[in-house]
Write a structure and sequence with these properties.
This protein is of the alpha+beta class. It has one domain: Cytochrome P450 (Cytochrome p450), CATH 1.10.630.10. The protein is about 55% helix and about 10% strand. It has 15 helices and eleven strands. The strands form four sheets. It has a four-stranded mixed β-sheet with strand order 1-2-7-4. The chain has a three-stranded antiparallel β-sheet with strand order 3-11-8. The radius of gyration is 21 Å and the shape is globular. The protein starts with a helix and ends with a strand. Bound molecules: protoporphyrin IX containing FE. Protoporphyrin IX containing FE (HEM) binds next to helix 11 and helix 15.
Amino acid sequence: MTRALLAMARTFTPVLRWKNNTFVFRAEDVKEVLNRNQDFTIAEINGPNIERLIGPYILGMDDGPQYQRDIGILRAATKREDGERISSFVRKEAVAIVDNLPKEFDLVQSFTRQLPYLLIADYFGTPGPDRSSMLRWNRSIFWDVFLDLKDEPEVRSAALRSSSEMVPYIKEQIKENKNRVAQGLEIEDNMLNRLIKMQDEDVPSFSDEEMAGNFAGTLMGTLEPINKACVYILQQFFSRKEILKKAIQAAKSDDTQTMKELALEALRFQPNMPVLMRFSKEEQELGKRRIRAGQTVYAMTYSAMFDPRQVEQPKRFLPGRPVEDMMYLGFGQHRCFGNYINLVAIPEMLNVLLKIEGLRPKGKVIKEGPFPDRWIFEKD
Ligand code: HEM
């Protein structure tokens, strides 16, 4: 839907019902839907898809003891110093890639998918049996869980095949690393090994089975979302001369704060997920309106981020808006767990990339289904 149509919907049909679907367009209502997580639930939307592939995972669960336990364990496996580790790793790897780029190159395969893949290998500790399997697994599972609204059989079967390879791979990796610990050998400090070590500590921890599923979910949430976000941000930069100039200036002076603000504002104009879905099991009131029981509720986050009732001068590209009010990284209970990665890794990637002299796209983004798959660039 275009922004003009969304503006009309906000004015004339702010809550619109069509069969079993209710669309919510205004910022205030979208926030309310995403905040009232007991009334507008996620389990019915994502639960079956996720569980079929990888078992129970937070993004398919409503609030409750299991959600709190699982998110608590995942959070405990991250450290305060991780931000610095992630940014210096990404910077180093990005520079190594950029130093070896030919005059013409595919940005997606060589950079925006490659860097999150390298992060998965290093920081998460799961490189996969090879790069292409890891990329294929993450893409096909994400596609089936979140983006296959038509239930295409090929998408489903590709995801089932991927999870039948990915989950055993992670289990095997857990077994191998635990064997190393049993032999008194050192294991690297990464997310997987932290979760393994927690099993021997006096803290809540996952069983091996749970660890494999939670890990698969977290990897899937990392790779393609970072790829897509970078491509969308660059599409916005390259379609706005003045903004591109500012971004190049920020890159050249290694100003990651300005780059972050520019990147986030670009994501407001082109978010990975323009809508988030929830379910209303019972009849609910939303402001003066009633939402029937049994409806799928579409919280139109893209519309909300352009709602002048809550967003100042929404049509203007204004970096530095309050990130918490924005919904490109989710909102409410399920707000993105990966923000401690996103908010450092993406500006670093862009900083390195936009230092390249004469960098320019040579055509359009080519997609595989909903994912950016190729985008040819050239440089001087
Ligand atoms: C720029 C890249 C990313 C974008 C745009 C993005 C976007 C989102 C969005 C919109 C949600 C909310 C979904 C909903 O409410 O229905 C979400 C949740 C989540 N994201 Fe991300 N994400 C990104 C990167 C990551 C990374 C790197 C990780 C890995 C750690 C990650 C892990 C998660 C998890 C685990 C949740 C669920 C949190 C919960 O249920 O409490 N994401 N993300």
